[in-house]
Design goal:
five-stranded antiparallel sheet; alpha+beta; 2 helices; elongated
Length: 171
């Protein structure tokens, strides 16, 4: 998911304290601005009979990042920390670490890292997270039972137990 507001076609940099940075989109009777000022919850504002500012540059909306190569700037994704955890992050810009292209990401309020594509992935959907948790739970059940032959019928039974609501109670 990108931080560029949906529908934006242009972007203009801030010029002075009066002219804030903004994303723009044209409408049938004017244009809309998504002003990037100090508002907590910015929203699209309609300006009747306006034209896009001369300073507004057309932006190419990135295609959805599939996990191949570097994610586009402003893309929300996940960063592998190396301790077994993935954390949400936002791509700030691209750079090089020696000859290796990297994405510089922010993953905490003021924490940045240079990340290669190998340790970045798209944000997982709710379905992907649920499937991962299901796999982990079934694996934990299999580990609790002990070693099972690979071709056993027990694994489908463990999935059925999980799907029926079985959860191990932690003491």
């Amino acid at each position: 998911m990108s931080n560029v507001p949906e529908g934006a076609t242009h972007y203009s940099e801030a010029v002075t304290d009066v002219y804030f940075a903004a994303y723009w989109k044209e409408g049938p009777a004017g244009c809309w601005a998504f002003v990037l000022d100090d508002r907590k919850d910015p929203e699209w504002i309609f300006y009747e009979c306006c034209e896009l500012p001369a300073r507004a540059k057309r932006i190419e909306m990135p295609k959805t990042w599939t996990g191949e190569g570097l994610p586009p700037v402003c893309e929300d994704c996940e960063l592998w920390l190396g301790d077994g955890s993935w954390v949400p992050c936002t791509v700030m810009f691209h750079d090089f670490s020696g000859a290796i292209p990297v994405a510089v990401v922010r993953y905490a309020e003021h924490t940045y890292a240079a990340a290669s594509p190998k340790i970045l992935r798209p944000v997982r959907t709710a379905e992907q997270i649920e499937a991962y948790e299901r796999e982990q739970a079934v694996q934990a059940m299999a580990d609790d039972i002990g070693s099972l032959p690979i071709n056993t019928k027990a694994i489908p039974t463990l999935y059925a137990l999980y799907d029926a609501g079985y959860r191990k109670v932690q003491s």
